[in-house]
Specification:
Length: 282
């Protein structure tokens, strides 16, 4: 029996024929049928494409997920959420993108879990993008956590998503945060870095009416942590690195406008109450 002519069916807008071709024994035919249904954008294809999310071929499952995202029908949300647990990273990637495109907030919590737990950095990157597109405040904290991801593509996607969620102030605060952490990490590797300029800091504080002393207090604290690491004091190392994460995250939330602390003294008090240890004092 000859293989279905997918191109001809697409040209004739034969949606029923393409739906039948989605069940063909040849995975290539099934893939091309899903692609054609994606291009035709006919809602009759929603359920057949959701069934294709269980296809034995990874390429077909991924193509079906992409198509469902572009069809824009809410009936696909639950099947796409289930596809976030697919064994294939390409399928999880496509499902995350589709959920972001659909704009249904039922997908927020599942995407947060993917951002936190998925083993594939490309999938985590797509989850961050999708959360930015959905615009739900529940994603703010997980996205801030993702700024510390070991993979730059994930942290950059999280940065862009936070900017989409919280606006220009957040975008600029994240840029300052990332630049300072990159500088410190380079120095820890023994690389020579340019002296830090205060020009961007002053511009940020002026634009958003922030406290420049508080901002520089954050930098000073990171320098203390850096000094402890260089001095190789193991006991203090652990606590200083713990403080580093705690204080930098706290600072970032404040500069993004999530919290509102106006002085370093107030910030120090809050951090000490949360268990941070200040090794600048004997």
């Amino acid at each position: 029996m000859p293989a279905p002519n997918v191109d001809e069916m697409k040209d004739q807008k034969d949606v029923k024929g393409l739906i039948i071709a989605l069940k063909d024994e040849d995975a290539t035919v099934r893939y091309r049928a899903a692609q054609a249904l994606d291009e035709l954008r006919d809602l009759r294809a929603v359920w057949p494409l959701t069934n294709a999310l269980r296809d034995e071929a990874l390429t077909v499952r991924a193509r079906a997920a992409e198509a469902l995202g572009r069809l824009g029908d809410g009936r696909a949300v639950e099947p796409l959420v289930r596809a976030l647990a697919d064994a294939g990273a390409n399928v999880r990637y496509a499902a995350a993108g589709a959920l972001g495109a659909l704009g249904v907030r039922v997908g927020v919590e599942p995407l947060i879990r993917v951002l936190r737990d998925d083993a594939d950095n490309v999938v985590r990157t797509q989850a961050a993008r999708a959360l930015g597109a959905l615009g739900d405040s529940r994603a703010v904290e997980p996205l801030i956590d993702a700024l510390a991801d070991a993979h730059d593509d994930v942290s950059e996607a999280a940065s862009d998503a936070l900017a989409a969620l919280l606006g220009q102030r957040a975008e600029q605060a994240v840029k300052l945060y990332r630049a300072e952490r990159d500088r410190r990490q380079a120095e820890l590797r023994g690389e020579v870095t340019w002296a830090r300029t205060h020009k961007q800091e002053r511009a940020f504080c002026s634009r958003w009416k922030r406290n420049v002393t508080l901002l520089r207090g954050f930098y000073s604290f990171l320098d203390v942590c850096e000094g402890s690491v260089r001095a190789k004091r193991p006991c203090e190392n652990y606590h200083c690195l713990y403080n580093d994460v705690m204080v930098s995250g706290f600072w970032l939330r404040n500069e993004m406008g999530i919290t509102d602390v106006t002085s370093k003294t107030e910030a120090d008090g809050i951090m000490q109450a949360q268990g941070a240890v200040d090794y600048t004092h004997p």
